[in-house]
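In the previous chapter we treated chains in isolation. Here, by contrast, the input contains two separate entities that must be folded as one system, with a combined length of 546 residues.
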Amino acid sequence: MKIGNLESPVTIDGTQKVIYDSGELTAAATSITISGLDGDVDEEYELIVRTVNGSGGNTYYGVRINNDSTANIYGAQNLDAIDTNASAQRFTTTMLQFVLNPVANTHQALVNLKLKAKTGQVRTAIVKYAQGISGTTVTRAGLFGYSYNETATNITSLVVLAVNADGLGIGSRVILLKKVNATDGIKTGNLEVQGKIYGVWQEVYNSTLTEAATSVTISGLTGNTDVLYRVRARSVGGYNGASNIYIRINNDSSSIYGKQYLGGLLSTVYGGRSVIAGIVAGINTLNNLSLGECLIYAKSGFVRTAISSFSGRINTTTVNEIWLYGFSYNETSTEITSLVILAEYENGLGIGTNIIVEKLNLI
Amino acid sequence: MKRGITIPKLSSNLKADTWVKVYEATLTEAATSLTISNLLGDTDNEYKLEARIVNGYNGAANYRIRPNNDSGTNYGHQVINAVDSAVAAARGTATGILMSNASTALGDVNQDSVIIQAKSGYVRTVIHEFATKVVTTTITRLYLLGQSWNNTADQITSLVILSDRANGLGIGSRIVLWKKVAK
């Protein structure tokens, strides 16, 4: 069966869909409560949060499961980098803290959190984040592993909060996704959707190169409608030398992309911060591979933010490096209408390079 | 004005350039391995695997993913990890795609989030994060990994998730596998 667009409300078995979208806040808030959840049925949640600090001072952010603020009930292991300083820490806290203190006033954070929700075990979460983003500065980027040391109570709500009043400033946004299990409804056999499905990640571009190229352009985008993009690039090195793979927004080659990175190469850990001319999405050399995924908050009105993680210069059983980056794109007004995937050197995108761009259908 | 069709609920085989769940299991008995079969890696192109593993072995247990149950030392990795305040990086080879690796006791909980580029023609590549040996409020280790499977020719038709200890996949272990289905 072929069908056009599927608008809200639609529930399709076996998909992951948006069940909550705050929209960009038009007034500052201290917390946002997502209620009506059933963690034991849903089992996993994914949270995407973009915060804009509206508190007037420093703050930080997290999630409380069932608004549980019990002291030391959440455990954390953190790995991140501030400028050249890569570090780790372990602590307990009163919330699933996904951005560390401090995030300065008006600064942003972008967070991607995956939560295992079902009772019976300690609940766990993995978090990627980039925080303290302003202009071309990304203050820190990293990972958390979390536990919520309560095994018995079904999750019925998640409270996303700022520690300081109005910390969820204008422009902040909270999106929650869950896996769908539809046990009743219409059985359709194969369902080919020719258009859009509300509430799911859907490809807008998927191409594999049959000739080497220096760049690939994905055009026809509507970033202010789409809000979030996810780019996955499995590149094959076409240049005989180390060549970064970049994402340029609207083909903007200005040095207005700020980065903070954390990485590992052999036994060396790296951290660093600088301004460059694109979002780094991979690194390659001739006939080697790189695999990266980049989440981009695309909507204008604020500095655009991104989290990019990738492995690079892979050959047989040698994986040369692994990186996690937080990015800013210091341009607030122009709608994103294209993404250019660009190799640092000519023909750096070799034959077999596969590029996928997805958007999250929020409307 | 909204266009398109509003349908309250569907059960279907969906083809829409979107992610679709292909496997979901929560163990009610401990197992040493579980196999996700009937995959078509060259059609599916990429997989996402989300796992919560509960150690079912009373001692140290490690976990792997083996495409097509390949048990050769055909896998490479580069990791960066944190243990308490210590940060480290390392590179090596293994007999599977590394999963959580610090479980040392019955009941330890581990969480893995894995992206696999599955199509043949090239070395298969993986990006992966995991938090391992989670006990009450302690996460023992946190990892970010790039990994490879050095096999360019064979279509992936199965993924085997296994422990190096009998019954290492304890009760409550849960695996969800997603694939992208084209229109």
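The mean pLDDT of chain A is 95. The first strand of chain A starts at residue 2 and ends at 3. Compare these points with the single-chain example from earlier in the chapter.
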